[in-house]
Specification:
Blueprint (H helix, E strand, L loop, with lengths): L8 H85 L3 H11 L5 E16 L9 E16 L4 H11 L5 E12 L2 E13 L7
């Protein structure tokens, strides 16, 4: 038995074109969707890596900035140390006591007042230890400068700090806090102090 298509040929061709067009549209949509999904997956895979790189870069920049600040601080401390060494050499070898007064002014606490500065040159006997050539100990004369400081501070705590700063500059052979006590001054309580410092004369043989 033969099958006969009773629909017009033109209508049949139109339906066939529509089916092919629908298949093409669906295929194109699926292709576009697959590309989009691939792009999303690629971005999702690289985005955390990019964020990690940005964080790492920020940490490196922060470390560099911190290092620059540390270097600047070290340079400042080095300059201060050089200044102190230069001052020590000038005072020890070529006594210019105005330099010493400036050092004292720089070392004192801002709330501290020096009302007495006395410098004396004294001779002291120093015993030398026996050596291989000399079995007996000998006594030699040594010239020293003794610096006596007196004044008052706002608090007792600032006095020991001042003494420690005097010792830290390595200018004096000894620094001794003779007196530190509380007292009333113009209805205010202050800390009175007396300090003695010994400085060996360069001409006496010891630096």
């Amino acid at each position: 038995m033969n099958d006969f298509n009773l629909l017009p040929a033109k209508h049949v061709r139109t339906q066939a074109i529509k089916r092919r067009l629908w298949i093409w549209v669906v295929g194109a949509g699926l292709y576009t969707a697959s590309i989009a999904m691939g792009a999303i997956a690629t971005y999702a895979g690289t985005s955390p890596s990019r964020a990690a790189n940005q964080r790492e870069r920020a940490e490196i920049e922060a470390t560099i900035d911190s290092g620059k600040k540390d270097i600047a601080q070290l340079n400042k401390q080095l300059a201060e140390a050089r200044h102190r060494l230069k001052t020590t050499a000038e005072v020890s070898k070529h006594p210019d006591w105005s330099i010493l007064l400036k050092v004292l002014a720089d070392l004192r606490d801002p709330t501290m007042v020096l009302d007495g500065v006395e410098l004396r040159k004294v001779a002291a006997e120093v015993s030398a230890k026996p050596t291989a050539n000399k079995r007996k100990s000998t006594t030699t004369a040594e010239t020293r400068f003794v610096l006596k400081l007196s004044g008052f501070a706002q608090s007792l705590e600032s006095v020991p700090s001042f003494v420690l700063r005097l010792e830290a500059i390595k200018l004096f052979s000894s620094v001794k806090l003779v007196e530190s006590r509380a007292a009333d001054l113009n209805t205010k309580q202050v800390a009175l102090f007396r300090v003695e410092c010994s400085l060996i004369d360069a001409e006496g043989g010891a630096p």
